[in-house]
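RagB/SusD family nutrient uptake outer membrane protein, Pedobacter jeongneungensis. Tokens?
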Amino acid sequence: MKANQIKIYIVALALIFSVSRCKKEVKPSTAIDDESALTNPGDIETATIGTYAVLRNATYVRSAHFLTEFQGDNVAQGQPSSDDLSRCYRYTHIPTGTHGANFWKQAYYVIVAANKIIAAIPDNSSADLKQLKGENLYLKGMMEFNLVRVFGRPYTQGNGENPGVPILKEGVPAGTPARNTVKEVYAAAIADLLKAADLMTVAKADIFASKEVAYALLSRIYLNMGDNANAIKYADLVIASGRYKLLQGADYASYFTKTPEANSETIFAIRYTKTEDQDFGAIGSMYYSGTPGALSTPGAQGNTGYGEIYASQQYVAELDKNPADLRHSFIAPYKINGVLQVNTKIAPNVPMYYVTKYNLQEGIANLSSPVYLRLAEMYLNKAEANAKLGNAQLALDDVNLIRTRAGIPVLTLAGIAAENKTALDVVLEERRLEFAFEGQRAYDLFRNNRPMTRNYPGTHALNNTPNTNITQTILPTDARVIFYVPQYEIDNNKNLTQNP
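Tokens:
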């Protein structure tokens, strides 16, 4: 759907969405003004579609990915970039960072849009309107959680009493709000999602919100705040719904080339179609540079993206411990004329592996519909929560379900004890393999008070002295595990405080 075809009330703000590193500009329509847009169910439905469209804006999707995934140890930057993503990767954040600003702005656009619809629909409305209200509550809760993870410290540090982000309430002018605490933002997101789940009764496709989508996000939120019982409860509700199934075999190996609607494991995804521009502004352009057939056609790379970010040597080594692991399907060796290439800019003998989770949907090189929630996470949320509750066997049961799907050996309590590992150790190892490149790794470590250690070549070594030292360790208590509040917000709102 083209943005200039969407007649939504938010257009009264006359916002301009610009795609990072792309010349294309999309100006939202001004066909319906702010006062008259929400006077009938048809307009409300159209406005809700518009809220989803704001979420789909390329500056949000791309910046959100860079802020979350590039903090982890599954990726390596092969050469410095003029894009602000280099600072995301190297932990050299600045208050004027482009991606932090994009992410903050677009997330609050979604919240403002959702709030107006939420306020316009009474709780005693028709089932159809309740459904739409619930969808907007979900989108609001999703944005609140995403924002507080990026700009607020992990909940488990200080029991959520650290500064979070401003909470904008429906029906209340935004003004110049101060930052709420992390705990307050989590509570707001949970309240929105619980109400959303109560209101939604339609099992919509996985590119829209529904009751189970709200439950899945609740499981993730509770896990991040250390409420293990509720993390299990809501994961079980998703699993018990029967709406989703783990993909198996070849279907799993081709997971990320499928459209969301054709994928039984996806719970919620941000949908892009092959009629939309997916070029150098797409997430996949940073991971891949080639034609759709480049992975099988020698010498075909080089014309669709930058290919600056690769699977880290450390991640590849973990994956290679089980050569039959189907998750090898989500990385691809960069070969020219059958010869595995190395990146001499960071090290003389490090093979380069493309990441392909954001490429080749419907055979188009950089087309992807990023998956936000999927069923495998529900099992591994339960596994982590059970490990922390002392239910080691239950944790292993869910880990083994995912390992069996990946085609690798199951684990036993005796076996992990012999390796001096705990149930939580193996859960986090499995989460790393399963959710690599999906923006979860750094949060998995930091909420569990574990450091992130990059011991592999990459531009993060440019921070080191001497620069031959390739190891970078980020402690969970480091100020750099979160990003600065955008400087333009600080300048325009005297009530906002900056992160240290």
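The longest strand covers residues 266-269.
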